[in-house]
C-alpha cells in the first residue's frame, strides 16, 4: 500500500500508531476515499493548506477564494492540496486578548502540521497574531511552508475624508470623547471605517508582519501589500500553491532561519515604520530557532535605518497606496546595502532577483528613497533603565517630537478597571506634563492587551491636549500613535520596578539616550519592594486549563511572550 515512488511522502507519512504501519495506511486510504479521492490522487505529494477562515474573523473573509486559488496552483504543479482547519484569531473577537491566545494557535498549528501527512504547508494568515502564531508553529514543526497573507482591506471615505481601520477608528473615537463629534456622527463613521474584508488598511501589526514574512523570503513577491479583494491577491495565492507544491516535491528547499534573515526583518520593520508588536513576535520567532534579539544590536540597526514608508499610523497613506507604489520589494531595493539580498526564498529565487523586477520609473510619494526619508532613523527604539531593566519600546516616529525628551510626575493606574473608573474623574490630579502610568497589563498581569494607548484624561482632552507620555507593561495596536512607552519588562505582575512607582514620583524618558528611569534611589525602591511582596499581582486569575498553562509558562516581552517549553531546546534547559 505504501507509495512506491516516495515511501516517506504524501499519505504514507506519519501513520497513526496501531503497531502496524500497513494497516494504518489501509485505514487512512479507506477513509479519505470516502471523500472521493482516487489512488492516483493519493500517490502524489501532499500540500496542506491551513484554513483560518472564520465568521468571527473578517480580516480573513477572503480565505475561501484564496484556498481555491492555492489549490489550483498546487494541482498545476502535480501535487495534492488538502485543506485543514486551525484556530483563527481576530483582534476584536479574541478575549481577553489575542496575544494571550497566540501561543495556543501556534501550538495548534504546529501539532496539526506534524500530526497530518503533508509534505509542505500553506499558512493562510493575516490578522495580527495569526501570521506570528503560524510562523512559530511551522518553524517548530520543521516542515517546509509558504505564508499567504490575506492582504489589507480597502480604504474608504467619510464626510469627504479618507478613512480606514483602524488608525482612524482611534482618531475619531478620541474626537468623540473630546466632544468634537456627536453621537450620530460617530455611529455613522462606524459604517465606513472597514469598507471590505482584509486586514487593517494601515501599517499596523498585520501589515507589518506581512512585510516581515515577505522580506524573510517566505511569501510570493507582493504578498505583503496586494489588497485582499484584488485580482493580484488571487494570483499571489495561485503562485503560493505553486511554490508549496515544489517544496513538497523537493524541487526547492526551505531556507533556514538565521541571524541574517532576522536582521533583514528588523531592518524592514524600521524602514516601514512598523508596529511595536512585531518586536514581540520576532523575539518569539527567534526563540523557536534558538536565536535571541539583542537590544543593542536592534538600536544599532535602528540608528542607521531610515523610515522610508509614508503610511498611517505615523504618516499619510494606506496599504493599497503602498501596493500601487511598488510594495515591499521596492522598499528593499531602496534600502540597498542595509539589507542582505542573497537570501533565498521559498520560491527558489533570491531577494536580489526580485529587486531586479522593481520599476523605479514613475513618481509616487509613499515609498521614499534614502536621500529623502520620512524620518532619518530610529523608527523604533528599545529603551532600558531602572524602570525597565529588561527593556521597553517606543515608536518615536508616531510620537510627539517635543515629548521624546521629557520628565514629569507619575500618575498611576492599577490596571484597566482602575483606569476606567478614574481617568475621566474631573477631580483626578493630572496635568498635561505628567506621565500616565498603567501597570498590571503585562503578559502575566492580564494577557498584555493593546491598552498602552492610555486615553488622554477627558478634562485635558477638552483643553486640547492630544498627547502625553504614557507608560505601561502592555502593548499598543500597531494602528495607534502617540508618545507611548510599551512592553516595560519585567512587568508589574512579576514584581518589576514598574510595580514600585508611586504617584508623584518623577519619571524621565530620554529617547536619545534610549533610557527610561524613575528618579527614586535604589534603597527606596528596595524598601517598597519588601512592602509589596505579599500582594497578588496577577490579574488574570486562571486556575485551570489554558489560562493556567499560560500563567505558569508565559515569558516576558523581550522573549516574545512565548511559553518556556515551546522555545527551541526547551527540553534541554
Ligand atoms: Fe485584523 Fe486589524 S483587526 S488586522
Structure description:
By secondary structure, the chain is an alpha/beta fold. It has helices spanning about 20-35, 40, 65-75, 100-115, 130-140, 165-175, 185-190, 205-215, 230-250, 260-270, 275-290, 295-305, 320-325, 325-335, 350-355, 415-420, 445, 460, 520-530, 545-555, and strands at about 45-50, 80-85, 120-125, 145-150, 155-160, 160-165, 380-385, 390-395, 405-415, 435-440, 470, 485-490, 505-510, 515-520. An eight-stranded mixed β-sheet has the order 7-8-12-11-10-9-13-14. The protein has a four-stranded parallel β-sheet with strand order 2-1-3-4, sandwiched between helices. The chain has a two-stranded antiparallel ribbon with strand order 5-6. Helix 16 (about 415-420) links the parallel strand 9 (about 405-415) and strand 10. Helix 4 (about 100-115) runs parallel beside helix 5. The radius of gyration is 24 Å and the shape is globular. The model is unreliable at about 1-5 (pLDDT under 50). The structure holds FE2/S2 (inorganic) cluster. FE2/S2 (inorganic) cluster (FES) binds near residues 90, 91, 127, 199 and 206.
Approximately what portion of the residues adopt beta-strand conformation? 5-15%
| Overall pLDDT confidence | 94
Number of domains: 3
CATH topology (level 3) name of the largest domain: Rossmann fold
> Under the CATH scheme, which class of the largest domain?
Alpha Beta
Please work out how many helical segments DSSP would assign.
20
* Rg, alpha carbons: 24 Å
Number of strands: 14
How are strands sequenced across the largest beta sheet?
Answer: 7-8-12-11-10-9-13-14
The percentage helix is 25-40%
CATH superfamily of the largest domain: Response regulator
Report the major sheet.
Answer: 8 strands, mixed
CATH architecture of the largest domain: 3-Layer(aba) Sandwich
Question: Which regions are unreliable across 5 or more consecutive residues at pLDDT < 50?
Answer: 1-6
Task: Report the span from N to C terminus.
Answer: 42 Å
Amino acid at each position: 500500500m505504501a507509495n512506491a515512488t516516495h515511501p516517506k511522502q504524501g499519505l504514507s507519512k506519519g501513520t497513526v500508531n496501531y503497531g502496524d504501519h500497513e494497516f494504518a495506511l489501509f485505514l487512512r486510504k479507506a477513509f479519505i476515499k470516502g471523500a472521493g479521492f482516487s489512488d492516483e490522487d493519493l500517490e502524489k505529494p501532499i500540500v496542506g493548506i491551513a484554513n483560518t477562515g472564520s465568521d468571527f474573523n473578517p480580516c480573513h473573509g477572503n480565505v475561501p477564494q484564496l484556498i481555491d486559488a492555492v489549490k489550483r496552483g498546487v494541482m498545476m504543479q502535480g501535487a495534492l492540496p488538502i485543506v485543514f482547519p486551525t484556530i483563527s484569531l481576530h483582534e476584536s473577537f479574541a478575549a481577553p486578548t489575542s496575544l494571550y491566545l497566540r501561543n495556543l494557535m501556534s501550538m495548534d498549528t504546529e501539532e496539526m502540521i506534524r500530526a497530518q501527512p503533508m509534505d509542505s504547508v500553506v499558512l493562510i494568515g493575516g490578522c495580527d497574531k495569526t501570521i506570528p502564531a503560524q510562523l512559530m508553529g511551522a518553524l517548530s514543526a520543521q516542515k517546509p511552508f509558504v505564508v499567504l497573507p490575506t492582504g489589507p482591506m480597502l480604504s474608504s471615505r467619510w464626510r469627504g475624508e479618507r478613512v480606514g481601520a483602524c488608525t482612524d477608528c482611534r482618531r475619531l473615537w478620541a474626537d468623540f470623547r473630546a466632544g468634537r463629534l456627536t453621537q450620530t456622527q460617530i455611529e455613522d463613521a462606524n459604517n465606513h471605517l472597514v469598507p471590505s474584508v482584509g486586514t487593517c488598511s494601515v501599517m499596523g501589526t498585520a501589515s507589518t508582519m506581512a512585510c516581515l514574512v515577505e522580506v524573510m523570503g517566505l511569501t510570493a513577491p507582493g504578498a505583503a501589500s496586494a489588497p485582499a479583494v484584488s485580482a493580484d491577491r488571487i494570483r499571489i495565492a495561485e503562485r503560493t500553491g505553486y511554490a508549496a507544491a515544489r517544496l513538497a516535491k523537493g524541487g526547492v528547499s526551505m531556507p533556514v532561519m538565521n541571524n541574517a534573515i532576522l536582521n533583514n526583518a528588523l531592518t524592514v520593520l524600521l524602514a516601514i515604520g512598523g508596529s511595536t508588536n512585531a518586536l514581540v513576535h520576532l523575539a518569539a520567532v527567534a526563540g523557536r530557532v534558538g536565536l535571541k534579539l539583542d537590544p543593542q544590536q536592534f538600536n544599532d540597526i535602528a540608528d542607521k535605518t531610515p523610515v522610508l514608508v509614508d503610511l498611517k499610523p505615523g504618516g499619510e497613506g494606506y496599504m493599497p497606496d503602498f501596493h500601487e507604489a511598488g510594495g515591499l520589494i521596492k522598499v528593499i531595493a531602496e534600502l540597498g546595502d542595509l539589507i542582505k539580498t542573497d537570501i533565498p526564498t521559498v520560491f527558489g529565487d533570491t531577494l536580489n532577483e526580485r529587486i531586479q523586477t522593481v520599476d523605479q520609473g514613475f513618481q509616487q510619494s509613499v515609498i521614499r528613497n534614502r536621500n529623502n526619508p520620512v524620518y532619518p532613523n530610529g523608527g523604533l527604539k528599545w529603551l532600558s533603565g531602572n524602570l525597565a531593566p529588561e527593556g521597553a519600546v517606543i515608536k518615536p516616529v508616531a510620537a510627539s517630537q517635543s515629548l521624546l525628551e521629557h520628565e514629569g510626575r507619575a500618575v498611576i493606574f492599577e490596571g484597566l478597571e482602575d483606569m476606567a473608573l478614574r481617568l475621566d474623574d474631573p477631580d483626578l490630579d493630572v496635568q498635561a506634563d505628567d506621565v500616565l502610568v498603567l501597570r498590571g497589563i503585562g503578559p502575566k498581569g492580564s494577557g498584555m492587551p493593546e491598552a498602552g494607548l492610555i486615553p488622554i484624561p477627558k478634562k485635558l482632552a477638552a483643553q486640547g491636549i492630544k498627547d502625553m507620555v504614557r507608560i505601561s507593561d502592555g502593548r499598543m495596536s500597531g494602528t495607534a500613535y502617540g508618545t507611548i512607552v510599551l512592553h516595560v519588562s519585567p512587568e508589574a505582575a512579576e514584581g518589576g520596578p514598574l510595580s514600585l512607582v508611586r504617584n508623584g514620583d518623577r519619571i524621565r524618558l530620554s529617547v536619545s539616550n534610549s533610557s527610561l528611569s524613575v528618579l527614586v534611589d535604589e534603597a527606596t525602591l528596595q524598601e517598597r519592594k519588601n512592602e509589596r511582596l505579599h500582594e497578588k499581582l496577577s490579574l488574570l486569575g486562571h486556575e485551570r486549563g489554558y489560562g493556567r498553562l499560560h500563567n505558569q509558562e508565559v515569558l516576558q516581552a523581550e522573549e516574545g511572550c512565548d511559553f518556556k517549553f515551546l522555545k527551541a531546546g526547551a527540553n534541554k534547559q
